[in-house]
Design a protein that fits this description.
By secondary structure, the protein is of the alpha+beta class. It has one domain (25-85). Helix content is 34%, strand content 23%. The protein contains 2 helices and 6 strands; from the N terminus they run αββββββα. It has a two-stranded antiparallel ribbon with strand order 1-2. β4 (47-51) and β5 (54-58) form a beta hairpin. The structure holds zinc ion. The site of zinc ion has 8 residues, from α2.
């Protein structure tokens, strides 16, 4: 079974017009260590919180090192929480 594919309409021309010819390399500032780096963030810590009825999401850009540290930290945290439950 293959899932039904989204139909592609012939609007390629108009899509091309919306594309920027030469996208500038974006410079991000790491949310953790403040280092600036070009290109896509290696990872981002997804922050989600609710304020009243509004759900806010924020994905601060992180450099490669901080993204890895954050991932490891999250795994360690889950590990500890599991142990505490036992
Ligand atoms: Zn960093």
């Amino acid at each position: 079974m293959t899932p039904p594919r989204a139909q592609r309409s012939s609007t390629a021309a108009s899509e091309l017009e919306l594309e920027e010819p030469r996208p500038l390399p974006r410079v991000y500032e790491c949310d953790q260590c403040g280092a600036s780096f070009e290109g896509d963030p290696a990872g981002s810590g997804l922050l989600v919180w609710t304020r009243g009825e509004e759900v806010r999401r924020e994905e601060p850009p992180l450099c490669k090192d901080c993204a890895e540290q954050l991932t490891v930290g999250a795994l360690l945290k889950w590990d500890l929480e599991e142990e505490e439950e036992g």
